[in-house]
């Protein structure tokens, strides 16, 4: 028998099955089940408290909803595509449980404020999890920095050896990026922590409802102040998708570096076996698949942002069915970032850092050329002139096949009498790194200070 639609009153003919399936969202919006029930619980309590329905009716609906929540948690709820979406599925399951009194639940409410409420509840929950996982990732980076203050590696610009830096400095750069991500997600909570419930279809309701009460019962900070905005606002999701995109971009950059560092050419790190895979044909292979996947998944997260921005563009107020398209991208980005953050943290925690190899690769290069120029400048030579002298010497060395540290003292003194034997210590990468203690620099003292700052920030964000 054809199930009667909850909105069936004004219709004479019913949808064909394939058309019905096109319009249905239950395949994906069932992820909102628990939030939908939570919202309904708040709504029915309010309906009882304000006398819109009787207390007995409210209690019976509440008991039915609580049973549904238990059934859901036990994996026992079965949804039907003929009931279109999660809201009508839950209502029809409730009717099966408690009979026609279930029909009173939808008083002073529409699916428009209901779906918006579910999305706010889902996203708020997700945002707290994201911030929490980011704290773990940030802590992992600070731990690595702490362990590697004096681990020297090449610093790059244009992917060319530029100046030697500390591996800790590199990790702390990412710590700062993820800290800003964390702040963005934390701010995103503010725009998500608002209750649309009671805006009804678009214009509010004639029933004496209490929107502050439902907002409080659901743990929101306050209700939306305009009903049209309440049902049609998706900024909180766009902010999330945009924050998720920036986060993925950061993770992807770090993954790209890890992938490079694992290569035969760099050999700066080795990933643990638990985060690597082999090849079905080449027995020697150990591939950084998980890092590549995070880099790859960045694409879908960007796609979800552009997708929803495009859905929202030109949408007239208020609810339009287009808005049903806000869900899959949000779920997908949420699930993608939650697992990617954990994978990245696990990968970093278990990788081996090859300090000697990193240091070695700063020894046979010209990344100490700035040291020589700075040495000359600190003895009074104008920096531009020093730059010119060193540039010529680098050319001379590279033609002859040796490096600045191999140039004999006599040659140095021919170039400039202000160069003394202390030049050789100045040219060592360890010295070069240790001395860059300008604020934020890679000097060991500066790094210790940065780590201290990071630790203070981390203990503050743990209390969020
Ligand atoms: N499944 C719908 C959505 O996700 C719920 C709201 C439907 N409202 C309506 N007026 N058709 O957007």
In short:
The protein has 464 residues and is mainly α. It has 19 helices and six strands. The protein has three domains: 8-107, Fumarase C, Chain B, domain 1 (Orthogonal Bundle); 112-202 and 221-356, Fumarase/aspartase (Central domain) (Fumarase C, Chain A, domain 2), CATH 1.20.200.10; 369-461, Orthogonal Bundle (Ribonucleotide Reductase Protein R1, domain 1).
Q: Estimate nothing, just give the exact number of structural domains.
A: 3
Mean pLDDT: 96
Q: List the uncertain runs.
A: none
The CATH class of the largest domain:
Mainly Alpha
Compressed to H and E, one letter per element, the order equals: HHHHHHEEHEHEHHEHHEHHHHHHH
CATH superfamily of the largest domain: Fumarase/aspartase (Central domain)
Work out the number of β strands: 6
* Oligomerization: single chain
- Which structural class do the helices and strands define? mainly alpha
The biggest beta sheet is recorded as:
2 strands, antiparallel
Give keywords.
464 residues; mainly alpha; Fumarase C, Chain B, domain 1; Fumarase C, Chain A, domain 2; Ribonucleotide Reductase Protein R1, domain 1; 3 domains; two-stranded antiparallel ribbon; two-stranded parallel ribbon; 19 helices
Structural account:
The protein is mainly α and 464 residues long. The chain folds into three domains: 8-107, Orthogonal Bundle (Fumarase C, Chain B, domain 1), CATH 1.10.275.10; 112-202 and 221-356, Fumarase C, Chain A, domain 2; 369-461, Fumarase/aspartase (C-terminal domain) (Ribonucleotide Reductase Protein R1, domain 1, Orthogonal Bundle), CATH 1.10.40.30. 61% of the residues lie in helices and 5% in strands. It is built from 19 helices and six strands. It has helices at 17-23, 26-29, 33-49, 55-73, 86-98, 111-147, 167-192, 211-217, 227-232, 235-262, 289-312, 327-350, 355-360, 369-378, 383-400, 409-415, 423-427, 429-434, 444-461; strands at residues 152-157, 160-166, 194-195, 222-223, 269-270, 352-353. The strands form three sheets. The protein has a two-stranded antiparallel sheet with strand order 1-2. Strands 3-4 form a two-stranded parallel ribbon. Strands 5-6 form a two-stranded antiparallel ribbon. A hairpin with a 2-residue loop joins strand 1 (152-157) and strand 2. Helix 6 runs antiparallel to helix 7 and helix 7 (167-192) runs antiparallel to helix 10. The protein binds arginine.
